[in-house]
Amino acid sequence: MPLIEHTTPTPRVPTTRRVDTVTPRLQAGRRPRFSADDVVGTALRLGLGTFSVAAVARELGVTTAAVYRRFPSHRDLLEECLSRILAEPDRSPRRSAGRTHCAGELQNGGHCA
Fold first, then answer.
1. Which CATH architecture has domain 33-107?
2. What is the pLDDT of residue 33?
């Protein structure tokens, strides 16, 4: 009878990837489908006095929790909406003309009605 040698199997060493071939991942998870600008725009469209975070999320097609990740509270979202409104230049021709008219009256020593 032939002699059979028993050897222990060589342990498998995990292969390592080369560093230069690995694509770095910037952030875990899915990329968001909406931005903070989308949230603010939707809130403004729904109305400052009437929007809710749930309604904004519903309009955007995302969960309420997703909106809260962008804005931690209703108040934070409201403050951002107000700051965007105040940052916009006044483009109303009637108001601009009125301001020019009043400025001219005041410069001439008169008063603005």
1. Orthogonal Bundle (1.10)
2. 82
